[in-house]
Amino acid sequence: MNGNISVFCCPVCGGELNKDGKTLRCPSGHCYDYAKSGYVNLLMSQQGRLHGDDRPMVRARTSFLSRGYYRPLLDTISAVAIPHLSKAPRVFDAGCGEGWYTEELHKILQSNGFSPESAGVDISRDALTAAAKRPFGGEFAVASLYHIPLKDQWADLIINVFAPDCIEEFSRILKYGGIYVKAIPLEDHLIELKRAVYDSVYENDVVIPSYSGFELLSNSILRNIIHLPDGETVKNLFSMTPYARKTSPDDVAKLEKITTLDVTASFSVLLYKKV
Ligand SMILES: [Zn+2]
After folding, report:
1. Are 223 and 186 a contacting pair, CB within 8 Å?
2. Domain check: are 27 and 61 in the same one?
3. What is the pLDDT of residue 1?
4. pTM for the model
5. How many angstroms separate the alpha carbon of residue 41 from the centre of ligand 1?
């Protein structure tokens, strides 16, 4: 928020959004109310059928991330991005969830002498309820990544940690010379967790995408073992995975019995430049 002007623009007409009490209003009269928790809903009505993480998943994610298990991933994202940023970078977190990466990256940039402006968008109202409670000064909106309420070439940096790859929209909102940092899980990411729960286990397919209009500058691979000290942490991590929604009662029973586990966390952090 710059004075009363939101970083976001009107999802209907693209106009500037001004804060007017508990509402954001564009010059054409479209208005959007802030939820009690502090995020604004910029989802167009026809997108309303989409939904993301529900409240228990958000709670599990917040609990897991706040303990720093994925801190190495965040550190790699910031390390590859920083050499490409100017003094006051505009940062967009695509599929920001409960805002852990948004806030922590913002703080890392500040501690490195930058004056970032940060915005995050997610489809999940429950995730944004949690994100909006983060006091670091970023702005969050419920919106679709296929229709991002930001002006053309707004962003200097887009980060995407396991969110859908809406590259046309990302390209639209990214400046020329701006960078896109995408984190993807590698073949053996969380393989021990899968082995503990499922009878047959497959490694993840890993595809390094190439995008027209973007140059891949680097691919940083990180792999470390995370010690999950108790059953609750195991369950929290499991609920963050794509498998959580399609697990049978028998497999859930196996999950319930795990009290501690060492798991591989392995990622590629891909750095692209818009050319
Ligand atoms: Zn408007």
Report:
1. yes
2. no
3. 73
4. 0.94
5. 14
